[in-house]
Design brief:
Strand content: under 5%
Low-confidence stretches: none
Helix content: over 70%
Distance between the termini: 40 Å
Shape: globular
Oligomer: single chain
Number of domains: 1
Number of helices: 9
Order of helices and strands: HHHHHHHHH
Radius of gyration: 18 Å
């Protein structure tokens, strides 16, 4: 049995809200739009959507159950993700001045880097597990997992592109190196702040 129209519409709303709201991916995309422009950030956007598509498939096909059986593996993955997030925050904080040329200081995150990041992104895991556990009927399960993953990726791409577009619009405003410095530091701090739920959960344990 395939997804009903009502369930699909409900899931589409879930995918839109979770994709377009602030999180590590969107914070980095906003900063990438400011520092590198829209076109140079396209591989970053595509990497996020494709990497997330594979992550949802993996969760739906049993990886989530593996982590439930071996929670240590999940904890290791989370802390690797936290460390990588701190590294990305450092890179954003030290981004160079806005440049219109490809030879500008620094490089945007690559397609493969963005795709791999989804595997250590806490918000991406929450979104993937929520989508599979809430919106995937058991009848025709494997087909429904593929549909869920595909629809999520299709909604995710235009959603994340809005953040790059906003960043690109801010490029002219942030030509002044002082304001760009303030912006990049703010984005880096927001990225670090996104780790708060992880730290809170760890403290509770």
């Amino acid at each position: 049995m395939t997804l009903s129209l009502d369930l699909l519409l409900g899931f589409a709303l879930f995918a839109l809200v979770t994709s377009v709201t602030p999180g590590p991916n969107n914070t980095m995309l906003l900063a990438s739009g400011v520092n590198f422009g829209f076109n140079r950030s396209i591989p970053h956007m595509l990497g996020i959507s494709c990497g997330f598509f594979v992550l949802v498939l993996a969760v739906g096909f049993g990886l989530g159950a593996v982590f439930q059986t071996y929670p240590l593996l999940y904890n290791v993955l989370r802390y690797v993700g936290a460390a990588y997030l701190l590294y990305l925050a450092w890179k954003i904080a030290h981004s160079g001045p806005v440049s219109e040329t490809a030879q500008g200081q620094g490089k945007p995150i690559s397609y493969w880097g963005a795709a791999a990041f989804q595997w250590v992104n806490p918000k991406a895991w929450i979104m993937a597990v929520g989508a599979i556990s809430t919106y995937t009927p058991l009848q025709g399960y494997f087909t429904n997992v593929v549909v869920i993953a595909a629809v999520f990726a299709l909604i995710n791409l235009p959603s994340v592109s809005l953040w790059v577009a906003c960043g690109s619009l801010l490029r002219k405003v942030l030509r002044d190196p002082r304001w760009l410095r303030v912006f990049n530091l703010s984005m880096a701090l927001l990225l670090v702040a996104s780790l708060y739920p992880l730290l809170l959960e760890s403290a509770g344990n």
